[in-house]
Amino acid sequence: MKKILIIAIALMTSVTYTSAQAKIKFDKTTHNFGKFEESEKQHATFTFTNTGNQPLVINQVMASCGCTNVKYEKKPVAPGQSGKIEVTYDGEGKFPGYVKKNITVRSNADGAETVRLYIEGEMD
What we know:
The protein is mainly β. Helix content is 15%, strand content 48%.
């Protein structure tokens, strides 16, 4: 009888643990700037929502190159709340043509610990 009780408690604990997690959902994962001049800095905002039931923590946001800068809030995002990642692309001194850069977002989100965001466009 004790074994059954212990197994039941362990099972309930594991079910509770796996259902209590942060989840991240972005409104979009790609932003297209369209055509733009080399001298014009381009800005994009990626908005996300914590659709889980635990606080979401963005651990790190990294751009694929030095021409792309990112800015984000480092405080935990409560369940049901939203946050944003602001991206700026500076093409000054870069070759004209099609541009596609990625931004890697690392968080404590269940099933999406790493998400890639993309910016793209045609620089003249």
